[in-house]
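Homework-ish question, so no full write-ups if that breaks the rules, but can someone show me the predicted structure for this set?
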Amino acid sequence: MTPAAPAANTMIIERPLRSGQQIYARGSDVVILGGVSNGAEVIADGSIHCYGPLRGRALAGAQGNTAARIITTCFAPELVSIAGVYRTFERGITANLAGKPAHAVLRASGSGQQTLNIETLQLD
Amino acid sequence: MTRVIVVTSGKGGVGKTTSSASFASGLALRGFKTAVIDFDVGLRNLDLIMGCERRVVYDFVNVISGDANLHQALIKDRHCENLFVLPASQTRDKDALTEEGVEKILNDLKHMGFDYIVCDSPAGIEHGAIMALTFADEAIVVTNPEVSSIRDSDRILGILQSKSRRARDGQEPVKEHLLITRYSAKRVDEGEMLSYKDVQELLRVPLIGVIPESESVLQASNAGTPVIHTKEEDAAAAYQDVVARFLGEERELRFVNFEKPGIFKRLFGG
Amino acid sequence: MSWLEKFFGSNQQPKSASLAKERLTLVIAHQRDAEDNTPDFLPALQKDLVAVISKYIKINPDDIRVQMEKKGNYEVLEVNIVMPEPGARKANA
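A: Not a homework solution, just the prediction itself:
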C-alpha cells in the first residue's frame, strides 16, 4: 500500500484552529499543531495531520485525491471526509477510537468500492 | 511600555464588566496608572459597576468626534488612586466608533503616561467587540464553565488571532489568558459542572484564575464598588490572585476544591 | 450568615438592594430624558416631507430642515423650507 505522497510546501498551522475558522490547504498537506475545535473546519487537497484533539470537521483529498489521509493524536471529530467520501459521528464515537491516536483512510472493499475506515494507531 | 488588555468573552453575562472593573482596580491598587474603557456602543455598563454613573459628562464617542477631549471625559475613580474610567456612548450609531478614532485615543492615553489600558468589550462579535480587541496586546477571555460560554470563548479566541492589529500586521500574537468565572467547586464535585481543567483542555489557553460564584458580586454592583475592594470575600481574593498572576507572581489556585462540611454544619447550616 | 442570624433575621440584606434602587432611579430618569430629546422619526419625517413638497415645488432635500425643540412647558416641531428662485419653482410632473 503506497503511503500518501507528501506534497510540496506543507501548510503548517502553529496554533489551535478555533470555532468558526476555516483553513484550506490548496495543493498540499496541512499540519495543525494544537488541535481543531468544535465548529472549526480544515480542508486540504492532500492529507491532514492534526497534533492535538481533532474535534471539528476535516476534509482531506478535497480535489479527489483518494490516497489522502486524516491523521490525529486524538480522534473526536464532527465529520471526516476523504475525496468526498465522508462520515459523521452524531451518535458518538466508539470507545476504542474516541480520543485515541487514529487515522482515516480510504480502503478498497471487496466490491471495488472505497470505504472510509477509521483505524487506531499504535504510536508508542 | 503601555500594555493594552482586552477583557472579552463572546458570550454575554459571563462577567466581563465585573472582571474589567476589578482587574483594572487591582492594577491601580498596585500603583499602576490604569484606564478602563467601556467599548459598548449604545449600552453603558461600566460606569454603573464602577459607581461613577452620576459623574458621566462626556463619553468615548464624544472624544472621538472631537466634542470633548480626553481630560474632560476621563472620570477619576473614587475608590483608588491611579484609576480612570472612560464611559461608553449611549448613541445608537455603531459607525461612531471608528478604528482611527480608537487608535488615536489609545495613543493619547499612552502619551498621558498610562501603564495599562483595560478595554471592557461588549458581548458578541460585532463592531464594538471587534474595536475592543483590535489594539490589544493581551486578552483576558472570560468564560463560565458552561457549554455556550465555552464555544463562544473559542470563537472569540479565533477572532482575536485573525482580526487584531497584531495578527493583521504579522506581529507577535495577542497573549491569551483564560479567566473562569461563576465557578462552583461544589457542583464540580457533584459532577454537575465542568471543572476548570475541562475548560482549559477544551480551550487550550493558559489559566489566569478562577473566580468562585459569590453573592458579593451582586452586592458590589448594587453599591457601585468593584468586588475586589470587598474585604474577606472569596471573589475579591480570587481577583487579587488574578492581578498577581498577571504581574508575574506565582499564586496557587484557590476556591477550586470542595470540602464537604462537617456533620454540625450540615445539620445546622453553614 | 450564621444560623443565629438566619433565625433572628439579619438587617444586612436590604442594604445593597436599596442603594441600587436609589442609584438606578436617577440613572433611568436621566436616560429617558435624553431619549425623549431626539425622537427617532425626525430623519424619516424629513424624507417624507421632501417627497411631498417636491410634488408641488422643486426643492432640494438640503433645503428642508426638521427640528424638535423643548420650549418651556411644551415641545415645538420646527420645519424650515428654503424656497427656490421664483423662475425655478415648477415641480416635475
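Now go work out the reasoning yourself. Hint: The two ends of chain A are 22 Å apart (CA to CA).
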